[in-house]
Design a protein that fits this description.
five-stranded antiparallel sheet; Aminopeptidase; alpha+beta; 5 strands; 21% strand
Length: 159
């Protein structure tokens, strides 16, 4: 979580602008709008996803590790920030859908995450609770991780 007054970490912050021998300089990738796995479609997030994302952000069980629930207005603001960060960095969240029936599962993607004084890449995934326990989060997270390695040229070890 960023501290008050800190700017959002960028892709360059995450993937190597500090001279670490553990990470490489990222290339800004052309935004991929769709990826598919064996069971999932990951598509670009749009402003229209805010209403559906509220199903997750208003669920106290799904949000138990977050500071608070996010109401409809807050979800719209979150989507706006997320889309702006994706435009700036060349990566971000996709919306995960079930390939067979198009069911909305939730967001998953790569985000810069500040851990103390260090910024690390994070694969983040948050699914609608009814879709938990089927391996969808793992499958989507692996697709996002692999996309980061292939399209961003990063060598960071995702923890």
């Amino acid at each position: 979580m960023k501290r008050r007054g800190e700017k959002e970490p960028s892709a360059d912050d995450v993937f190597g602008c500090g001279g670490s021998d553990r990470v490489g300089k990222v290339r800004k990738a052309a935004r991929v709008t769709t990826m598919e796995t064996a069971r999932l479609r990951l598509r670009a997030m749009t402003r229209d996803d805010a209403e559906t994302l509220s199903r997750i952000f208003l669920d106290p069980v799904a949000m138990r590790h977050y500071p608070s629930l996010i109401d409809h207005a807050g979800t719209g603001a979150w989507v706006d920030r997320t889309l702006a960060n994706s435009e700036r960095d060349g990566f971000g969240f996709w919306i995960v859908e079930h390939l067979a029936d198009g069911a909305f599962l939730g967001p998953c993607g790569l985000i810069p995450q500040r851990l103390g004084d260090v910024v690390e890449p994070e694969v983040a995934c948050l699914l609608v609770r009814e879709h938990w326990g089927h391996g969808y989060a793992t499958e989507a997270a692996h697709a996002c991780r692999d996309w980061g390695f292939c399209h961003l040229g990063c060598r960071a070890s995702f923890r």
